[in-house]
Prior knowledge:
The chain is an alpha+beta fold. 50% of the residues lie in helices and 14% in strands.
Amino acid sequence: MAVWIQAQQLQGDALHQMQSLYGQHFPIEVRHYLSQWIEASFLDTTKLVSPACGGRSARQGLTGLNTAYVLLVFQSTYDRCPLELVRCIKHILYTEQRLVREATNVSRISPVGGMMDSMSQKYQQINQAFEELRLLTQDTENDLRKLQHNQEYFIIQYQESLRIQAQLTSLATLPPADRQLREPALLSKRATVEAWLTREANTLQKYRLDLAEKHQKTLQLLRKQQTIILDDELIQWKRRQQLAGNGGPPEGGLDILQSWCEKLAETIWQNRQQIRRAEHLRQQLPIPGPIEELLNELNSTITDIISALVTSTFIIEKQPPQVLKTQTKFAATVRLLVGGKLNVHMNPPQVKATIISEQQAKALLKNENTRNDSSGEILNNNCVMEYHQTTGTLSAHFRNMSLKRIKRSDRRGAESVTEEKFTILFESQFSVGGNELVFQVKTLSLPVVVIVHGSQDNNATATVLWDNAFAEPGRVPFLVPDKVLWPQLCDAINMKYKAEVQSNRGLSEENLVFLAQKAFSSSSNNPDDYRNMTMTWSQFNRESLPGRNFTFWQWFDGVMELTKKHLKPHWNDGAILGFVNKQQAQDMLMSKPNGTFLLRFSDSEIGGITIAWVAENPNKAGERMVWNLMPYTTKDFSIRSLADRISDLNHLLFLYPDRPKDEVFSKYYTPPLSKAVDGYVKPQIKQVVPEFTTANPDPASGNPTYMDHGASPAPVNHPHTYGIYPPMSDSMLDADGEFDLDDTMDVARHVEELLRRPVESQWGGQQS
Length: 768
């Protein structure tokens, strides 16, 4: 089963490829439970066996799973062609081996490899512990049967002693001669039986004590194994789920965890039944000694263990959205990992969802009486758990919940509504073992921030990002550190950026230095200067950046939104430097030929990107300068794309450092419009910049309409320092000498409106 152990450790795309091998045709549970038999039977086989042998051997192996639905699936799918089952298994094994081999090759040159080896070792230890538990449970089962057999024989002998005693008593009615004749034999027989009973009673007591000690050992190992699975593996899965909310890799499926939890449940239940049978034997034949107290302790311990297992495996498989808007439909899924094994689905429980505040969550975890308080009203908040036979899962899918209203608490200090955290409480009640045990289970969702308007989304997202990234396991709801090291924050925002932009190109070290300079108002270009610096929550999203009316997060979130909606392909192509300030852009461009340009995110506007280029100073021959366009925003790109705008500007020749612009952007240009049809001229908007207007009409598109800024800028002579920009006299330029395209857009829309009118109506007066 070495291949299966390693296959379970695959990550990312390799894990998805492995999981996609399984389905209705070959359930993953079969692979898991029969991994040893499958690998022993098929990995060393070089030729396909005959259909008869192949089908028969496969079916024989599956009987060990004792899963009726698997047999039904295999019979319906492969009964007429058992060789296909053999091919299916061999294909799965071959693919798993290839994926594992590729991951291993990567691990040799990647630090992740050591982690995979460590995980593989841990998984092997878990499986070995389960094997040890199986053997221990089988051993105590054998001992229990032996104890029962000996006790039954003891009871028979005890009845024999009672019969002998009755015979002795009846001798009193006989004549003395007869009594003297028969009494010695009966007395001898009674003495022999009583001596045997005494010895056997001591033996039974020893058997009982030995069995109890073995159960103690089993329960110790069970508790240890359960701690590893619930407190390590399941908690790590929940942590991955939390980081996935920030854009981290998917938390992965629950199939392996469920199989472990089901093994725990099965082993616990077997031992619980053994302890109950031992208690029944004790009651059947009470023998003075410490066994009664030991059995009570064992029963209490096993009940605690199964209670912890059941309550801990009631989990949220699909979290509700962490930024939750009122009057908006949302979904969530809860799952009981041991529900199928404990037959909870025989009487399907109902799950209820309630929204509660941070304070109510704290009180709930302290077992304080919350008097069924809630902090709002959720519609469609009840759902019955359903058992899915093909996957063996018991879950409740809330598909149409909606937060009708929210009741906010008094906020602390400078806390805003988008910093207030709530949580969705899911709770249910069910019984197992024929109402032997009744469980009330509860689980809390990740923190949610409730908003009533889309404008609150970015600040709410900041709260969620900080919580997901920096929450510590086992915390009091929902405490997070007020400040974190800058490298920690870098990891969080880089993860978020890559997920939002859906790109493998994350933030480089240079990008992070730029962000550090912005966050700390620093000019240092040395990454080491920021490694021990801390950033507070207030610096992140409560206090505005110096000289701005927005926070660090609001600026960064604007960059992500702009890139996600309009710039994704250009970011992935490496065409956008982005995180560069004006001074850096000037330093970079002044060493390049005229017409070289770069794209950088605006410092002064949320969600803006500007073009900086180097060109001649029109007022001083032989002098060059760097120009900056007024930033484009989402509004601008909804009219004309970035690539088309760059195409329009003929003075832009090379993308920094030296790539011809058409080589980079031509694949994104909008195709030319066709000629006029039925007397209508189709409008075409093109962008121009004053002082750099060079008409280059495309014959295929007719006479284009330009968005003209009007008068050229008039830069004055100034010392040749890169940090100084020439003053602009044009009213469409801002104080920093940047072009303002808002007025240009108005002109463009007016021209577009004119061009949509029929030719006759526009020129009729002139024709007459």
